[in-house]
Specification:
The complex is a heterodimer of chains A (about 130) and B (about 260).
Chain A (H helix, E strand, L loop, with lengths): L5 H15 L1 H5 L15 H5 L9 H22 L3 E3 L5 E3 L2 H8 L7 H8 L5 H4 L3 H4 L1
Antiparallel strand pairs in A: 1-2
Chain B lengths: L4 H16 L3 H12 L18 E6 L9 H9 L15 E5 H4 L10 H4 L2 E5 L7 H5 L5 E3 L5 E3 L9 H5 L6 E2 L23 E2 L5 H4 L6 H5 L5 E5 L6 H8 L3 E2 L10 E4 L1
Parallel strand pairs in B: 1-10
Antiparallel strand pairs in B: 1-8, 2-3, 4-5, 6-7, 9-10
The chains are: A mainly alpha (about 130), B alpha+beta (about 260).
């Protein structure tokens, strides 16, 4: 088999492989500290029982699903009350509920989202009071 | 080695079965999530205002025409931007001349008081909403209580509803509206570039037991809001006594904003 333009093709393949593996070898040996999220807002400190809507492990894994189900529920079904697994009742809302305690979006939401490279579009419309005031 | 005809047919058949049946993992996953805890709780004893069919009566005789209280209140409550460029204008409730509100009823010999009348107009929350019929993503939909809702999360900004609405009640955000909002209401989200918005009959206020912002703001009590299916409601009391018309009723969209002239 004859490979035409061998030089260009091989150089091209090498450059391509180097470019797509860039993140792996660029970060090799470096340790990047996991994000430190801040949970000590005044509102949380005031809570007698420092529990989120659901337990921490559930919230860590499923907050995005929970928020999506709240969104559907409030906007499309007009159901605005959430009963948690342990029977506590909450009004569903991102700014009206979550941000009441987690008023430090930049040191709570953003830290993990930046670390994992997630760009939620929530804040295109929903207002973060931190930025306004 | 190339597969024989027999082998090829067996592989093709098995592949077809595999494609036709949903993967087992997905079925199991679906069952666990439906048993999960993400289902919303039942509404408790909330003070929300409920109705079989929300409707509004606009008494144009009471409306003084040159006041903008209803519009200011609405636009402030819902973070509606005041964009100077008329091509990018976003509006939920706005003033319109008689000939534009009721083009079929307007004629050259109509009395001057009516011709010059300024009438507040808004989304008619039609019983047969053309915007809902054309929306490709289900972003706009009609609630059981008649409110034609806008779910910005699903809006892709295709503007078909904008073309479908015969009342011009829908606006698209051609630009990011945030910088044009005079005073942010932190309790209500803004919209983003590329989504449609319109009057929502203050559904977020009704859920908290408060009447629409425009109705409360009107000092002349020209705007009346209520359940049109309830014979004792304020809107029914007015509609039962006075002659009312609706905008472009001939189109069959069954508007639920009634005008008294």
């Amino acid at each position: 088999m004859k490979l035409y333009n061998r030089g260009i093709i091989i150089v091209g393949i090498v450059v391509f492989l180097a470019a797509i593996t860039f993140p792996f070898w660029y970060d090799r040996g470096k340790t990047i500290a996991p994000p430190a999220i801040e949970l000590d807002t005044p509102a949380i400190q005031k809570l007698a029982d420092k529990r989120c809507v659901e337990d921490t492990a559930f919230m860590r894994d499923n907050h995005m699903k929970l928020l999506a189900s709240w969104r559907e529920s409030v906007v499309r079904k007009d159901i605005r009350v959430y009963t948690s697994k342990d029977g506590r009742v909450f009004e569903m809302g991102l700014t009206g509920n979550c941000l009441e305690c987690h008023e430090n979006k930049s040191r709570f939401c953003d830290r993990c989202h930046d670390y994992t490279g997630v760009k939620p579009t929530c804040w295109n419309c929903h207002i973060n009071p931190e930025e306004v005031l | 080695m190339a597969p024989t005809r027999r082998e090829f047919l067996i592989i093709a058949g098995l592949s077809a079965i595999g494609v036709a049946c949903p993967p087992l993992g997905r079925i199991i996953a679906k069952e666990t999530t439906s048993r999960g805890t993400l289902s919303p709780g039942a509404p408790g004893s909330s003070p929300a205002l409920k109705a079989k069919r929300w409707a509004m009566v606009v008494d144009a005789n009471k409306c003084c025409g040159d006041c903008t209280d209803c519009m200011t209140a609405c636009h402030q409550a819902h973070n509606v931007p005041a964009i100077g460029n008329v091509n990018h204008e976003v509006k939920w409730i706005w003033p319109e001349r008689f000939e534009n509100v009721f083009p079929a009823e307007s004629h050259t010999r109509i009395q001057e008081t009516v011709r010059k009348q300024i009438i507040p107009v808004l989304c008619n929350h039609c019983d047969n909403p053309p915007c809902v019929r054309v929306c490709p993503t289900g972003a706009t939909f009609r609630r059981a209580d008649g409110i034609v809702m806008m779910d910005s999360h699903r809006c892709i900004g295709c503007k078909i509803c904008l073309a479908a609405c015969p009342f011009g009640a829908r606006s698209i955000n051609f630009v990011n509206p945030r910088p044009f909002i005079r005073k942010l209401n932190l309790d209500f989200p803004t919209r983003t570039k590329g989504v449609i918005e319109k009057c929502n009959f203050c559904e977020e206020r009704l859920a908290r037991g408060i009447l629409p912002a425009c109705v409360l703001a009107c000092q002349e009590k020209a705007l009346v809001f209520g359940d049109v299916e309830d014979p004792n409601s304020k809107v029914r009391q007015i509609l039962d006594k006075k002659f009312s018309i609706r905008r472009r009723a001939e189109l069959g969209t069954k508007p639920q904003v009634y005008y008294i002239l």
